[in-house]
Structure formats: structure tokens, C-alpha cells
Amino acid sequence: MTNGFLRVAAVSPEVRVADVDFNVGQIIALIDRLEKDGVEIAVFPELCVTAYTCADLFHSAELLDAAQTGLKKLLKATEGRDITIIVGLPVYDGGAVWNCAAIISRGRYDIIRKRYIPNYNEFYERRWFAPETQDDLQTFEVAGVRIGVEICEDLWVTLPPSCRLTLAGADVIFNLSASDELIGKWQYTRSLVAQQSARCICGYVYTSAGRGESSTDLVFTGRGMIAERGTTLGEMDARTDSDCYVCADIDIEAIRRDRMHTTTFADCARANGIHSGMPTGVISTEPMDLTHRLRRYVDPHPFVPSDPEHRAERCREIVGIQTAALAQRLSAIHCSSLVVGISGGLDSTLALLVAERTFRSLGIPADKIVGVTMPGFGTTGRTYENALTLMRRLGVTIREIPIADAVMQHFRDIGHDPENHDVTYENSQARERTQILMDIANQTGGIVLGTGDLSELALGWATYNGDHMSMYGINAGVPKTLVRYLVEWFADETADNELSIALKDVADTPISPELTPADADGNIKQRTEDLVGPYELHDFFLYYTLRFGFRPARIFYLARHAFEGEYADSVILRWLREFFRRFFQQQFKRSCLPDGPKVGSVCLSPRGDWRMPSDASSALWLAEIDELIEKF
User: Fold this and answer.
1) Which residues are catalytic?
2) Residues 298-328, buried b or exposed e (16+ Cβ, 10 A)?
3) Minimal CB count within 10 Å: which of 100, 249, 350, 631?
């Protein structure tokens, strides 16, 4: 295991039925390739030493003896190697033949017997093999990881052994299978494997028999996959793949952190009388090897739906959550009026779109939504025109209230020089806008709909008691990268061409609070990402900080892979430090957040998802980042 990742492989070599020498030779040849790929544990198919389709030959002394000889050859072949292999073979013992998995490492082995022997398919395994009936749980430690093994049918039963093995501490389950090919069967199997990895909070490595198996009655095509916590990391189809294996890195640290955070996991183990053999440490204390190359995809945008085929479905789901939340709040307080500040930026645009859709679902006219545009010292023509277009096309009530005169009066009242464009200059505008929205809400008997997003909450990029405050924060669970994605989706979905053009321009507009004057050409001068860093980096940092509690060095390691070729190491580290500095320093703003709906696995509500003292120290985290900065 390196940096908390275990490299595994699902392998489906070519076999010859009952030709043990050939089959073992294929396995040994593959060991060399797998080891060069850095694989630490590789699983081969069920009964691969003899082939699965030997039928009555499984009761042949000649074949059973050959299988034992083949096992000895494999023991010899693994001597002095770091790789562990798991192979299937028949074993005669105690007057019965057993369908077994041999875990082989450095010339030594352990045997696991198949528990559930099917009698319902064309291959009547009960004819040849006895089922394991002992109730012991066997987990094994390999490369600092606890593993468990089940064989084919074991996964398909009502209570798979993997459930109890993972409760006993197994981080990864390996499954040796020989599942035949039938219409629709693989889709079911891959779903089953992925779901089991999610239910058991584990890695799951599955492989099946393929090339060379008898086709007398059945077809075996050599399928395989690697899953982790419900996500497929890699798949293999020996019919079309030139390689007969797939390998990937399983995140053991993420698995252990998820189990620690999901307290019902340990509760379930205790309720079933299972003692966990899980290592006492959540992660390895070894220094990180930041040059190690990962064999898995690291999504640079973990909050954004990655499957384009399901884009519309996911976006409808996200917006549906927001809409249902807002509808419930309005119904609960008997309110049929909303006030929204519209800047022409991403966040207020999404809030307005959700508000209009909510009112439509409740049968309330859109003109009950009061959209307020409040031009100030930094408002540009681009955002102003987009704000007006959005409100006009959505049919909401439009109010325009310039704030310059009121803010200038405020500057005179407090004795502030308007030429000094400091934080007072900026925040005075934000608080003036919030005061206007609150007072209009009083006028109309409505509530102020907040527009701030999850990324801004993480960074504290909001004026305290300014845009930080509202009566319901509809975007509180939506990070900036997802806000942009949703606005683009709305643009593609609408039949209103003028609205679509405006939405696409909003998505392309540089992110800015527009609190300082524009440049000489009237363009946005104050760009948020120049000041606090790229939101795609901050959203990446936020996800791995909140979702898994990873330390800065590991987040940096993952970011290097996710953003390779886009950001230099020094840039990633600069903004990683800024993220942790601001994340700790700005907790006081999150401690008094308005209500707002959670839409994904990460949220910062002080009432549920994130509870941290406002005076917590960031020293440990910043010190680790500073050490990295010295190296890079």
C-alpha cells in the first residue's frame, strides 16, 4: 500500500480444460506482467488452475493430483516476490472435493473453501463439490490491508460472506467467479458488485472465467471489474480487451475514514457479535511518496456529474431538491412572495431560476417574485443587462434601486474616504444591498432568498451580515463549480432563445462581487478567482476535506493527478494554503448560517453536517502545507 492506496488486479487468463501445466504457466507468465505494473494483489477466476468446465473430471485423482502439483509451482513462482495472487483450484480433503481459493504470497498459502454451491444452473456444482459449513471468518493481512475472499455464488446469496468479512475488518473483498454469459447478466452482476462495495464500504475485485473454457453448453467470456464504495474503478471484457486483466488503485484510507464516520458500520458489527480486526490506525503514518503514479481516475470536479448520459437526470434531481425545499419553507410559513437580489452573476441566477420553478410548481404567479437589481460602484453593463433579461424573460417583478447615493451618505456618516477601496468600501455596499432586500421583504410580506453558495461559505467569501444573511439560503449546499454547471443546463433546457443566450453569458462571465470600479473599458476588474484562487481548486479541496477528512499532503497528492498539466505544484500549494487558512478563520460566519437545503454528500450547515469551534487553530494543517511548499 502506497499513500493509502492498494493496487489490485482482476485477471482472466486463457485456460485449457484439464491442462494444469498450461494453465499454471499462463498464471506465472502474468505474475511477471502484474508485478511490473505494481500490482500488490491479483485475483484469478474460480478453478482457474484446472479450468472451471472439467465436469466429472473433478473426481479424477489424476486431475486433483495435478492441481496440487500446480499449486506447488505457484508457491515456487511467488518466492521472493511482493505480489500476492488468489487462484481457484479443486482440493480433495476429508473424503470430499472442495471448490477453493488459494491465497499465495512469498511461497506460502492459505485456503478458503466456497460456502454456497449452486444446484440450479447447467453446471450442477453439487455433483462434484461439498459446501463449506464452518462459521469462522477468515480475513488476511496483505500489504497493510485486511482482505477477505468469497467465491462466485457466495456473492449472490441473501447474506453474502463479504458482509460479515467486512464487518470483521476486511477492507477489500476478492471474488473468484466463473459466471457464464447470458443476455443481461453482466449488467446485473456489475450492479451487484458495485452495490456490495457500497453496502460494505469496501473495495471489491471481481473476475470471471473466460477464454478456453468449454462451450459445450455455456459460454464464458472473461469479465472483471474493480469497485470501491459504490463506484466502478475499472472493467475488463476478455472478448474485446487485448489485456486479460484490469488494475486500479483502491483508496484504503477513504474506506477506513468512511467506516469511522458511518457509525452504524461498527454498530452493525457489534449487533452481530463480530469483532472487527480493523487496524487501529485510520491511515499509514509512513511519509507520502508524492511521485507515485496512481492507477485510477481522480475527478478534478468531484461535485459535478461526470456521466454526460445522465446529465439531465442529475440536474433535474439537484434542482428538484432545491425546489422541494423552497416549496416546503414557503408552505410552512404561509408565504407567497420572495425577494431576490439579482446581480447577473451565477449564484443569483440559479436562485432566481429555482424560485421561478418553485412558484410554477405551487401555482403562484411569477410576478410574486420581486427581483431587485442594485447597481453600485462596480456594476458593469454586461451583468446589468443580463440581470434585466433574466428577470424580464422569467416574468418576475423588476425593481431597480441604485445604491451609490445611499452608500456615499453612509461613507460621510462614518467618515470613510470613498477613494479608499478597502474592505469597508466593499462591505458597505454589500450591507446596503442586504438592508434594501430585507426592507422590501417587509413591504411585500415575503422573505429574502439568499444566493450565496457552498464554496463561498467554505472560504468565508461573503460580507458578514451582508450577502452572508438571508431568510433562506437556497444555494447553501451547491458549490460554485456545480452552480455554473446547473446554469448551463438551464440554458440548454429552455425553449426561450433570449433566456438561453443570457444564461450562457452569465456562465461565461468572470466571477466577481463587483464592489470596486470597472476598468477603463467598463469591464470587470475585480475578479474573485484572482483574489482567493480558482474555484475548481477550492471545490476540490473542500470535497476531500469534508467528505473524507484527508490531510493536506494527501489532498495535494490527489490534486496533482487531477489537475496534471493545468496547475503547477506551487500554484496548487499556494491555494491549498489559502483554502485552509480561510476555512478555519471564517468558521464564525458559518456558525450562524440561515437555513438552506443540503443537495449532496458535503454541506457546511452548523446544525448538522459541520460543527467546528470558531476559534479552532489551523496550525497543524498550515504547518504541513508549509513543509510541502519548501519541497516544491
Assistant:
1) 46, 114, 152
2) bebbbbbbeeeeebeebbeebbebbbebbbe
3) 631
